[in-house]
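Let's practice the habit of predicting before peeking. Look at the sequence and jot down your guess about where helices and strands might fall. Then scroll down.
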Amino acid sequence: MRVWFDPQVTSYEALLQVFFREHNPCVRSYKPQYKSAVYYHDEEQRQVITSMITDLETTYGKKIATTVDPVSVWTDAEEYHQQYVAKKRGGW
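Done guessing? Here is the structure:
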């Protein structure tokens, strides 16, 4: 999922807190299209991510599987994956 945000309204850190709260970051996917990943635009964002991951590893007592990568070319998923929850009757 790609997210655009206005840093005047919410912080990058606040977005990361939601991201890590809403899924289990300790589970590693064996399919690359399902991997847990966070992307950064600059060194400041990278530092926020690595600091949060360090804290989470202490909290969970295990390694966080989420990868941390610089932003690169984005490729949208296939159409049948778009708006998946909205298309599925009754949501999840």
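How did you do? The two ends are 17 Å apart (CA to CA).
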